[in-house]
Amino acid sequence: MKYDWLIGNNIMWATTEEEKIGVVICSFRGCVSHGLTLEIGETVQILEKCEGWYRGFTTKKPTVKGIFPTNYVYLKRAVVTNRGQYETVVPLEDPVVAEVTSTLQDWAVLWKQLYVQKHKVDLFYKLCHVMNELIDLRRQLISGHLTQDQTCDVKRHITVRLDWGNEHLGLDLVPRKEFEMVDADQISVSDLYKMHLSSRHSVQQSTTQGDSLGHRHGEAFRIPVPHHLFMNLKSFTYNTIGEDTDILFSLYDLREGKHISEKFMVRLSKNGGPKNPEKMDRLCALFTDLSNKDMKRDLYIISQFIRTGRMLLNDSKKGPPHVQYRRPYGCAVLAMSDVLQTISEMKEEKDFVLKVYTCNNENEWCQIHENIIRKSSTKYTTPSTNYGLVISLQLLRGEIEQVQKDNPMVFNRGVAITRKVGFPDVIMPGDIRNDLYLTLERGDFERGGKSVQKNIEVTMYVLYADGEVLKDCISLGTGEVCITEYRSFVLYHNNSPRWSEILKLPIPIDRFRDSHLRFEFRHCSTKDKGEKKLFGFAFTPLMREDGTTLTDESHELYVYKCDDNTTFSNHALYLGLPCCKDDFNGCPNIPSSIIFQRSIKETLWISTQLSSTKLTQNVDLLALLKWKAHTDHVMDILGRLRHVNGEEIVKFLQDILDTLFSILDDNTEKYGPLVFQSLVFIINLLRDSKYYHFRPVMDTYIQKHFAGALAYKELIRCLKCYMDRSAEVVRQDHIQDAMKRSAIGDDRAVVGMRLQALEYLFKFIVRSRILYSRATCGMEEDQFRASIQELFQSIRFVLSLDSRSSETLIFTQAPQPAHGPPAGSLSCSQAWASASPRPTSLSAALLNSFPAIFDELLQMFTVQEVAEFVRGTLGSMASTIHIGQSMDVVKLQSISHTVDSRLFFFPESRRILLPVVLHHIHLHLRQQKELLICSGILSRIFSIIKTSSLECSVLEDVEMMVESLLDILLQTLLSIMSKSQSQEAVRGQRCPQCTAEITGEYVSCLLSLLRQMSNIHFQQILENFQSREELKEFLLRIFCVFRNLMKLSIFPRDWNVMRLLTSNIIVTTTQHLSPALHKNFTDSDFDFKVWNSYFSLSVLYINQPSLQLENLSSAKRKKVLDKYGDMRVMMAYELFSMWQSLGENKIHFIPGMIGPFLGVTLVPQEEVRNIMIPIFHDMMDWEQCKNGNFKQVEAELIDKLDSLVSEGKGDENYRELFSLLTQLFGPYPSLLEKIEQETWRETGISFVTSVTRLMERLLDYRDCMKGDETENKKIGCTVNLLNFYKSEINKEEMYIRYIHKLCDMHLQAENYSEAAFTLLLYCELLQWEERPLREFLHYPTQSEWHRKEGLCRKVIHYFNKGKCWEYGIPLCRELGFQYELLYDYQSLSWIRKMEAAFYDNIIEQQRLEPEFFRVGFYGRKFPFFLRNKEFVCRGHDYERLEAFQQRMLGEFPQAIAMQHPNLPEEAILQCDAQYLQIYAVNPIPESLDVLQLDRVPDRIKSFYRVNNVRRFRYDRPFHKGPKDHENEFKSLWIERTTLTLTHPLPGISRWFEVETRDLVEVSPLENAISVLENKNHELRTLISQYQHKRLPGNINLLSMCLNGVIDAAVNGGIARYQEAFFDMEYIASHPDDSEKITQLKDLMEEQVHILGVGLAVHEKLVHPEMRPLHKKLTDQFQMLRSSLCHGLAGLDKLSSAGLGASTPRGLFTAHTPMSSESIKLIHRHSEMGNLLILTDGLLVEHPEDVYHIQPSPSSSSLRSTHSAPSQMINPTGSKVGSPSLLDKYKHNREMLMLLPSQRDHAMYPNIIGNGQVIGPCKPCSDPNLSVAEKVLTAPSSWSLDSGTRETLPFLFTHVGNVMAPPVPPRNLPPVTPAPYTCIAHQYSIRPGWQ
Questions:
Q1: Rounded distance, CA 1473 to CA 1421, Å?
Q2: Do residues 868 and 909 touch, judged by C-beta distance below 8 A?
Q3: pLDDT tens digits, residue range 80-115?
Q4: What global pTM score does this model have?
């Protein structure tokens, strides 16, 4: 109403301008007129707005438009293109956020599906967790509160999770650049390929757009990531010290036996807490600059405990309390190897407890940590408790600045930065240090006349030249402030103390030169005063007179004597003395009276290590920096520079460079070469990874500090000189002997080292020239250009020399970084190139360094000039590629660096350089050498051209590449693919993982080239071919490559972006090449090979899995269609067009292309099918014209259709394309419409109809085979297809194939009889002839006789396993006949024994009679072979109705069980559902003659009752007319349905279709006659068996049978029939039934005679204790006879009146339960003997009750009691049955009454031997089994049609309409009636009843 109101009030809807897209924030039910239903979270696109309402649609359903409130939607910014009706709206949001949103939507559907898949439940929960993480990360991105670094980190986590989920869900890999999805249109195919590789290898790496074989010369190496160990002291629980304690932590390398870090110091009070309360919870340190090498060391965290207090801890007498000594206490150790993995994997701190061990002997204190590590337990004391030191550790990575930024909480705690002792592996520019590490090692002192050794304490000061003590210049450890005076710890009574205590002296630079250290030695007395007596001192200056510092080594210092009275106010008194034996600076002339006396026997050992960026210990470096003071030795000084340590050089880099250029300016001619060599040495030093990051220092120096304006002249001169020297070396290499060649090799190595410095030499040259030009306003420009030209001439000359010189190149491993480049990822080719040995001589070194000078030249020359320099240089390289593989690599690396340089990006220079680059690549590709490097170069070229094409035209570049590369690329790819298929290694491949990668590299290169080619390029290349043969070879090559791309797994399945782009390029290329194919190879120039290659390519293309859009989600399908369209349709149109252009040549492709074209039509794309189907009309028409028929087309089409559909192709819609019902749209008429216009219309229509029917069966077969269907469906489907091939198409080979498939299915389901019948079909096709047969399926080449013999034996074996011996016997006879003809008596003996065994099995082995069930399949959801059809199924052993019903519902879980037996209505037949109708049916035996013979064993009869059965019957009771409630038998009719099957059971299937259905109604009188006839026959059989003693002596079976009949009749059962049918009213109203009434009367009389005989036999066999029962039966029989005579007397009067006479034949009786007395008697007897009660009688007051408990489909088919004996009770609740009868025997009521009357069921089973059932009662099984045990669910097995019986003439002999038994019965002796005569006389029974 709202919408209508808005319109009715003329309120206008306005098109939105900004509000274009939004997200639903509240669900809207669309309760207004034209309202749009919205769910929260949906995306809506807005079209119009009006007063608080929007009009638009959801992106999920764009066709449904409606209105919704504005406040229900959150608006988002968007970009709108193509405004108007077809506008496109894209949300303006972070691409990563958009990807997360769309991905989560796609995952949601798949995630729910995981829940129902049992084996993927774990993935369900994992994916749920990942989805929640993505939602949270997406929220963080949207919030906009993240820093740039945090944003990158969140995006990295998002991409990792997205790729993880896509991989586990089988979705596509997403190529990314900087965490965002790339647009394939904006990058080259090569780059796209590399991005896919990068994403596959690591989702955390950012993929650079370009890729090169190596970085430019001077490439940036990756900084080794340093590690930092964070340590936090949490507590010290070892509280037994009771004194102040210093804890010193450090990292110790056990292998090298030294501390690698400074010490971290913690001062604790005697209470265990920090001495400084402000440091509570702030006792932490960060051990920095640990390299990867350090992490691999055998590191330990050493914690030393130094207490401050008494001399002896537990002895208060040793020293006064006010005197404090530093004394060693204990040590704790933690192995890093034990905790490194744990802390590496955790992002938080991890706690560890360290035990504190005490030293047993203070003399070994310096080694206590090693003793603890080596577990020398005798040298230390283990603590008595587990208490100790509790620390936490955390490992951090990255530069210290970044670590500080990422972990602010760590650094806010006042962490102490604890550095390595010495420089780290990488020295960063600006890292200023001036630390002197001093280790107080040990001392040797005299006893001094004392009885005990001294307690020595060392005090150290740092003093300046004027004697001033420097304040705060001593550090015991980080974490505490520096001190002015250091006091060592005291070792008790030790004159040779070993301290090994490390100190750091952070002395200021300006005070370092004139400072010295003084060590004072005191004896600490333990007497009462506790005096510390000075007895000596030592000293050492920190810097020598030559300006160098103390060397990094151990120093032995002299000890000078002194005492407490000595003052050091005049330090000059001892500084003039020698401090050590190497010190000759002392003043020996000083009088001895005024100097200190040295103690000869006392010494002090210290060691020092300087870590300073400002001070040096190197004399040569100092001499260089002060060269002006030694001008005479400049040449010597320059020569010694290369021996200076690299650390020293980089520390003074700027000073050294200034010095060198000062020397060069001083005397160019004299010092020029040496300065040049020194400069080269320094430049090469910076190539080392340790000093690589000083290159910016060098660059800064050149740009800002370098001032050598004249230096360029000398540098050019020297460089040219060395180039000329190189040429001379090469010349000498040809003429010198081996020894001389070795020396020349050394020269070559020196020259090569200089050439490696080419980059920075040119930087100096160019910068010098710029400075000179500025100073002189461009003077001498021509001279400079000339000198550069001459230099390049020399370079070209060296490169152009004889290539044989390269064979002796010396390759050395140049200084390289240990960890690769700093950023980006290396491709395989890059990794190989970077790992290659770097040449250090001649041409190789020159080529390797040459590209690095391009940027420098561009500062002085134009782009074209530099390009000409480079082209000339590269062109001077030897064109031959036989110069050695190493030289090939160097040459290609130089080309790679050239392509990667900035010079190549300029279009004007690229046109100059591209020809020479392509020339060298072409040479290598032609020889198949260094393929991996060549592919990297080409990839980079294509990347540059693609980037340039977005800005300017690249037609000329592409033209050059097409002419040079297209053909050779095709040849290379074909070679690689062939080698890849044969698992051969490709030459030039350096690493195993390149096997697939090299193919992908060249495929991407080819695709890049083809993608850049325009129509002009294709025309040019096609016109350039000189002959048709060249064009033919080209087309064959490119078609072959395309086919291989689709057949081989070049790109993984999840690279869908790459696959789609490849397909687009292929179809575009094919469209460009098709005209050439049509123009040059049609008509008279027809070439089958080219056309066949084209058609094969087209077929493969359309069938590509990546193009089957039907398998994609709707969103993904839309995206593909928007970008590329349906490329299958494009190729199909192209294929059809080319087919039409063939003309008469079409006949060449018949029938060869039928199969491939048929495969195309099976693609589930309607337009493709519409295009392709008419091609088959052409094929049929052309073959009809040529041969007069189209048999080839027909045969091939059927064969291929079967093959393709079996592989899983096609769908149900495909069938309709052949049918008349579907009108195909498009320019092509339907196939049938075209056929109807032809002269061969009838055969064509018949053929298409057959194919359509075949499709129905094939599709059903395909669906069953590919799904998780039961064996039943597969068997039924196969039978359906099998019969079709035999009856309609007559394809013998396909027929035989499916015979074996069906046989295998039966064997798998253990249906051995069905397997035998199936295999017999093939056996019947063969004859007993010697005709040779070819190899087929699993059969070898053999004669027809032997194959038939093998089949017969196999069939006999299967019949034996299926217990169908009657069917196996005729086969035995047939085989025996053949063996007898051949006199093969051995085989004949075997087969006769087999036949005899079968006879024995028939008699001896027990077989169960199966149940039969009628099943109706109604509804369109069933397969074609089941749809709206009814079948009869042969159940498994012990399978009853309920079990069968459950099995069927399990096989069709969607089916609905029908609750009635009536035929369904038309609505059910046509509905899209499944309905099952199931009920039991009874077989109607065909072999009645066998069943009527009395003396045939029941085991034989049992077989014929349920085998070879084709007709089945089902009875349904109903009342016709008014129902008589007093006697319902009068109106109770029977509806009898007879089902006739297409084939008898058993057969090739366990189920067959119903062919005909016959329905008749049986009147109540006829039903009564039928029941009496069956009961009389049952009684006669049982009595006969007891009379002839064929049953054991136990007669309870006979007793119960007689009791049931006699007692039922006595209690009124028989009277119901008398009342119903012998009534005068009934007789009068049914005059036509007079004969039937007479028949009923005769049957009643006959039953009386039979009962009399039975009682006579019972009297003879009854046990004495059972006599009362016999007497009771006799009395009741007399009552029965008298009552019956009275009833029949009235009937006789009627008979005499008009009905006529009839011979009485018996008496009808019902059966009733035994009386309680009878039951008790029988039960008592059974306790004495072996009596088994098997059944009871049944009395019914209402005759229809019999049918109420029958398996009537009128009640629910799922509630039928036919197979549920426990439910066989009287539903009326009347007094029927014996209440004392056990439930397990109630099922025999079913056998008596509930089964349809035609089935031969005895009231009691026939028992022989040990109680085995042999009578007609079912189940024929062990009587000791309970009913529940007998009703077992067997495996499902059911099928359809069969044609077996018609093909087995030797199995069956027809006698009239009755099937004779295969085994002739013996002649039975006549039955002797004598015993019956005497019994009849006793009971006054007439003997003529027989």
A1: 5
A2: no
A3: 887 877 788 887 778 888 889 888 988 988 888 888
A4: 0.61
